[in-house]
Design goal:
By secondary structure, the chain is α/β, with parallel strands linked by helices. The protein has 11 helices and 14 strands. A hairpin with a 2-residue loop joins strand 2 and strand 3.
Length: 385
């Protein structure tokens, strides 16, 4: 089967997590850059990457890479790519997104327009016709320019992979599903350990944790752009991959995952989201303020996205709120706590310096992932022969 270069974009700063996921799926990684991991795979890999990867934003099929400092060089570079091998005569093709960093060509609309013209010229020569109906399957393109190096790729995913399908409504300042999964995977949490999110909002952290625990593939219930690419990917490959995902699920597990929020209405939203994700039986949601957080068990994990004051009146309440977070962490002194926040004074009011601090961009917002590491649980004695 033909091998492709596949590009998986991710959140800046979380490439190592995605890299590990791709390795675990069994694919060879060829390049790691800021915000993206490139790997080799066949048509089946396109299906499996879309359905199984928790931390990738989408899966792109790389068409080519070349240098371009002028629009003429861009046109010729795009025209040289073998579009006829990928797009059938009735295929709908367009440049869905163009981005440029530190490059002489920077107008996204001009890049999109010229690339489309170049593709049409190539298709005219191959298919020997002057006009295309474009009423077949959709083949959206993405073009990236970095220091005048042009990367051209087809988007196999369509909607971003963070759209698992379970979150219809969300609370204020929601964290995306892919970012939540990445942050959980940065911790040593395993399904045998307690996990609590005291600011659960729409439930993304608990739901993603429960899906991991039950081994539910995040893309199992959604559709992808490349499902229409029957010229490249047989329908049975998608069906076989979904079947593989169903066989790996374990919904009979016993876990201790809890989500709390001070807003009762948003707790109801979280419960509904968990039900759509198929994990409502694995999570305990409850209306509860951070001041009431305690737990009798030891060695648990607190993983959360607390408020960080997007509005002025909210910012004024942050010192008191983060003091309460610090007090709750004090009551859970054997636990490990992981907080993502854009609040610069978080450590000051928590009253404790984080053991690790990782800068992560949540969209365009710079945030910090504060990691307060608790003691490791004692090892269980080995059973004697």
């Amino acid at each position: 089967m033909r091998l492709y270069e596949l590009i998986a974009p991710c959140h800046f700063g979380l490439e190592a997590v995605l890299k590990r996921e791709i390795y675990e799926l069994g694919y060879e990684i060829t390049k790691v850059e800021d915000g993206r991991v490139t790997f080799e795979g066949d048509a089946e890999a396109i299906c499996r990457a879309n359905i199984f990867l928790r931390t990738a934003e989408r899966v792109l099929l790389k068409m080519g890479q070349f240098h371009a400092e002028t629009f003429e060089e861009l046109f010729q570079g795009i025209k040289k790519l073998p579009w006829e091998e990928f797009i059938p005569v009735d295929g709908k093709f367009w440049v869905a997104k163009a981005s440029s960093i530190k490059s002489k060509l920077f107008s996204a609309s001009d890049i999109q327009s010229i690339a489309k013209k170049a593709m049409v010229e190539r298709m005219k020569e191959h298919y020997h016709q002057q006009w295309f109906t474009e009423d077949g399957a959709a083949y959206p393109l993405r073009i990236f320019l970095m220091k005048d190096e042009v990367t051209v790729a087809m988007d196999t995913s369509g909607d971003s992979l963070h759209k698992r399908g379970y979150r219809i409504l969300s609370g204020k300042a929601p964290i995306t599903e892919t970012l939540a999964a990445s942050l959980i995977m940065l911790t040593p949490w395993k399904r045998e350990r307690i996990l609590v999110d005291p600011f659960c909002g729409s439930g993304t952290f608990p739901i993603e944790a429960a899906m991991m625990a039950a081994n539910i593939a995040p893309g199992m219930e959604r559709s992808f752009m490349a499902k229409g690419w029957t010229n490249l990917i047989e329908k049975k490959l998608w069906e076989e991959t979904v079947q593989e995902a169903r066989e790996l699920m374990d919904l009979e597990i016993s876990v201790d995952i809890q989500g709390y929020d001070i807003d009762g209405d948003i707790v109801k939203v979280a419960r509904d989201n968990a039900k759509r994700a198929g994990v409502d039986h694995l999570i305990h949601f409850q209306q509860r303020p951070i001041s009431a957080l305690s737990h009798p068990k030891k060695y648990g994990f607190l993983i959360s996205n607390p408020p960080y004051g997007e509005r002025l009146q909210e910012r004024e309440a942050l010192p008191a709120l983060y003091r309460e977070i610090g007090e709750a962490m004090g009551r859970l002194d054997s636990w490990s706590s992981y907080l993502i926040t854009a609040y610069a004074d978080a450590e000051r009011y928590i009253g404790k310096k984080a053991d690790k601090n990782r800068k992560i961009y949540n969209g365009m917002m710079k945030t910090y992932y504060y990691q307060f590491l608790g003691p490791k649980p004692p090892k269980r004695p080995r059973a004697q022969d």
